[in-house]
Design brief:
single chain; mainly beta; seven-stranded antiparallel beta sheet; three-stranded antiparallel beta sheet; 12 strands
Length: about 220
C-alpha cells in the first residue's frame, strides 16, 4: 500500500477562529466543505490538541476564513505554527476584522469568510468533526483559493542548499531543516548529532510538530 496516495486528495486551507470571553484565537485547518445547501450547512474537522477546538466545543460559534493564493507564509506561521494556549495570535495583527457574531475573521490573504453555529459534533478520536449551520458569509476578494498543494509549491519557503556531504532532515509541515553537521545548539543539540540520536520527544522549533514529521533529504 502506498500511503502517498492520500496526497492526491485535494484540500483547501482555512483560518478557523473562535472566541471565549475576551480571548480571540484561531488555527489553520485543511478540511472544510459544504454538506447541504438547504439548509446551508458546512462541515469542518479540528485536531483536539488545538485551543480553537475547545473554544468551539464551548461556545459553538466560529468564523472560517478561506485562504487565497495571495497569502504569505507569515499568515501560516501566525495561525499554524504557534499555540494559542500560550500566545495571543492576534497581537500586533491588523489583517482582521470583527464580524457580526463578535468573532474575528481574517482579511489578509483571504478571499471570503463564513460564520456559523455548530449543530452537532462527531468524535473522531484525535479530531472532532463539526456540522454547522451557516449564519453569515461574505466575499472579500476574487483571488483564487489556495490548496494545500499550492501552499507546498508556492508559499512554503524552499529549502536552502546545504554543503556537500551534510545530512539534512526537513520538517514536512513547515520546511524547517536540521543539519546534522551544525546541530541545533539553541535547542540543546550539539553539532555532529545524528538525527536518529535525538530524543523522540524532539519537536520542530518552528511549528512544534514531532520528530516523526521529519524526512531526510
Amino acid at each position: 500500500m502506498d500511503s502517498k496516495a492520500m496526497y492526491k486528495l485535494t484540500y483547501g486551507l482555512f483560518v478557523l477562529t473562535a472566541k471565549n470571553g475576551d480571548k480571540d484565537n484561531g488555527c489553520i485547518i485543511n478540511t472544510a466543505g459544504q454538506v447541504t445547501t438547504d439548509p446551508n450547512r458546512i462541515s469542518f474537522t479540528v485536531n483536539k490538541a488545538n485551543l480553537t477546538h475547545d473554544m468551539i466545543m464551548k461556545d459553538r460559534k466560529f468564523n472560517l476564513s478561506v485562504i487565497s493564493e495571495k497569502a504569505g507564509f507569515e499568515l501560516f506561521k501566525r495561525f499554524g505554527f504557534v499555540s494559542g494556549k500560550d500566545t495571543d495570535k492576534f497581537a500586533g495583527f491588523d489583517g482582521c476584522k470583527r464580524a457580526l457574531n463578535d468573532l474575528m475573521y481574517i482579511t489578509e490573504g483571504t478571499n471570503a469568510y463564513i460564520s456559523g453555529y455548530v449543530q452537532r459534533s462527531i468524535d473522531l478520536d484525535t479530531h472532532t468533526m463539526f456540522i454547522a449551520d451557516v449564519t453569515n458569509m461574505e466575499i472579500l476578494s476574487e483571488d483564487a483559493s489556495a490548496t494545500y498543494s499550492f501552499y507546498q509549491q508556492n508559499i512554503k519557503p524552499k529549502p536552502q542548499s546545504a554543503p556537500t556531504g551534510d545530512v539534512i532532515w526537513r520538517c514536512s509541515v513547515c520546511g524547517w531543516e536540521y543539519n546534522e553537521t551544525k546541530g541545533d545548539p539553541a535547542n540543546g543539540i550539539a553539532p555532529g548529532t545524528k538525527f536518529e540520536d535525538i530524543p523522540d520527544e524532539f519537536i520542530c522549533p518552528i511549528c512544534k510538530h514531532p520528530k516523526s514529521d521529519f524526512e531526510r533529504i
